[in-house]
Amino acid sequence: MAARAERRRRALSTTTITALGIDPGLAATGFGVVGGDRQHLGVRHFECIRTDSGAPLAARLSRIHAGAASALAKWRPDLVVIEKVYSLPKAPGSALLLAHVRGVICLAVEQAGCPLMEISPNEVKAALTGSGHADKEQVEQAVRRSLGLSGPVRPSHAADALALAVVGLRRAATGGDGRRR
Whole-prediction pTM value? Predict the structure, then answer.
């Protein structure tokens, strides 16, 4: 635990930092890598890992774990930012499946020794758009503005992962809520 805290402190004191944002989902998990000097952030990579809905749960979780472990090894982020679990009253089973996905991702992050930050979807939306109830298109547009991208970021899970990384970097740099002042 002390080693992880020291790694995070060192990373946040350097001039450049890299964050891996992860938007967990059983059908599709988005990964977004953002890096820079906190004032000028840029996209390093984004992708979405999809799983076969007909495959057993364990196989799907294994694929997500392998994808997370691969991204962590390739990009060696200073910070990993993952979306907090949320539950829709009409679909409580979805939260349970999401918790499984988050579990294998958190395991991969722990195994890689990376600092982990958790942010709720509403916090990300508020930090990027000013409204905690922004829709996916508004979040994607805010991601493009924040990162200087001219074209759309697709799929939406990748855009959400980039949003998590941007807000996580801002929050880590300011110790606050991640909003640009």
Answer: 0.88
